[in-house]
Amino acid sequence: MLNGFRTLLASLASKPEDVAAAQGALSQARILGGSIGLAMATIVLNNKIGDNLAGVMPPVGIEAIQQSVNAVAALSPANQGLVAKAYSDAFNEQMRICTYLSAAAFVTSLATYQKNPPSIAAMRERQTLRTEESMSDERTEPKQDIKTNVESAT
Fold first, then answer.
1. Could you tell me which residues come within 8 angstroms of residue 123 by beta carbon, excluding any fewer than 6 positions away?
2. If DSSP codes are grouped into helix, strand and coil, which group holds residue 119?
3. Quick one: pLDDT at residue 131?
4. For residue 54, what are the β-bridge partners?
5. 55: left (phi over 0), alpha (psi -120 to 50) or beta
6. How far apart are CA 53 and CA 89, in angstroms?
7. Mean pLDDT of 31-48
8. Amino acid 15: pLDDT
């Protein structure tokens, strides 16, 4: 739902010839954000597993758990509880980081505040006018022959 709203705003706030680039930039930003979030979550999880299980399990066992959650099934119930605690601690830290990032994004979004923003109807009308102007400019500009351009450059 929110992605559709962002796409609509990008198309309304951009010049008609820049709409595709604006929407592409939004898509790339979403993918980049997801990749960064996944990397952050993996780092936090692996650090919590290493910190919580160091001294309790051999390094080979910790590495096996970091590589695959299926390794937990082979552990004793006591060690499974320690792994569950490490996962819980990692989840709490991940959510804390997400909260901080959300707060920073909210503060950043305040920079886009407009006291009297234009209505969507006015933005659509302005976009229609821009499109008509660009189309009329294309019709009125004389088309030059490539050969003429090459000859004038030499």
1. 12, 13
2. coil
3. 75
4. 57
5. left
6. 12
7. 95
8. 77
Whether the pLDDT of residue 94 is over 70: the answer is yes
- SS3 category, 13: helix
Q: What is the DSSP letter of 54?
A: B
Q: CB neighbours of 45 closer than 8 A, spacing ≥ 6?
A: 66, 86, 87, 90, 94
pTM of the full structure:
0.69
The full DSSP string for 92-116 is HHHHHHHHHHHHHHHHHHGGG--SS
- Residue 117's SS3 state is coil
Output the six-digit token pair for 17: 């010839």
Q: How many CB atoms lie within 10 A of CB 86?
A: 21
The reported pLDDT for the residue numbered 137 is 67
| DSSP structure class, residue 17 | G
**DSSP SS3 for 80:** helix
- Cα–Cα distance list, 78 to 54, 56, 60, 71, 82 (Å): 15, 10, 18, 14, 7
pLDDT tens figures, 4-32: 777 777 777 777 778 888 888 888 998 99
- CA-based diameter of the chain, in Å? 84
Angle, CA 112 vertex, CA 8 and CA 122 arms, to 5°: 45
Give the pLDDT band of residue 139 (cuts 50, 70, 90): low
